[in-house]
Design goal:
Number of helices: 4
Number of strands: 9
Strand content: 35-45%
Radius of gyration: 16 Å
Structural class: alpha+beta
Strand order of the largest sheet: 1-2-3-4-5-6-7-8
Order of helices and strands: HHEHEEEEEEEHE
Distance between the termini: 44 Å
Helix content: 10-25%
Shape: globular
Length: 183
Amino acid sequence: MRTALLRMLTALTCVLAVCADIMPIPDFSLQNITGKWYMVGFATNAQWFVNHKDTMKMGTAMLVSNDIGDLDLTYATLNADGTCWRMTHLAKKTDTPGRFTFHSQVWNNDNDMRFVDVVYDNYAVVHTIKTKEGVSEVLNKLYSRTSEISADLQQKFTQFSQDTGVLAENIVILPKNGECPEA
């Protein structure tokens, strides 16, 4: 227990020191990021994730830009019972291209989201700092245009997540899953 607590404190220290400096990719293209993505990787030390990571499966994300450069995020994951879990956010653009902010009504937290590595027809790594009641946590997501990803991309995502303070056991490549029908 004591070792686990020390590891979490060390990781949190790394997060606070490293993550503030992580910037979005240069020349971010809002037009090219739009469309359907598969959420294939998830990495965070957040307790809710640690408690549920074994049951999580791959889902989809639709990213749609609006006229003023904001990004509508719609997530869907097929549950084991055939129902769909859905969530939407409107991520507001910032003065930095590739960086968006939004408040989650569901989780009651503020989110600072950055596209940190993108090959538009292949994958995107998204780094989000989630803050609730003054406490910040990192969430990294790996999106892919298909449900398949290479071993090299998995390793790249794992290394990035560890570099941002996520413990190795909290970095997951999600198992494939069926898709929800259009809402």
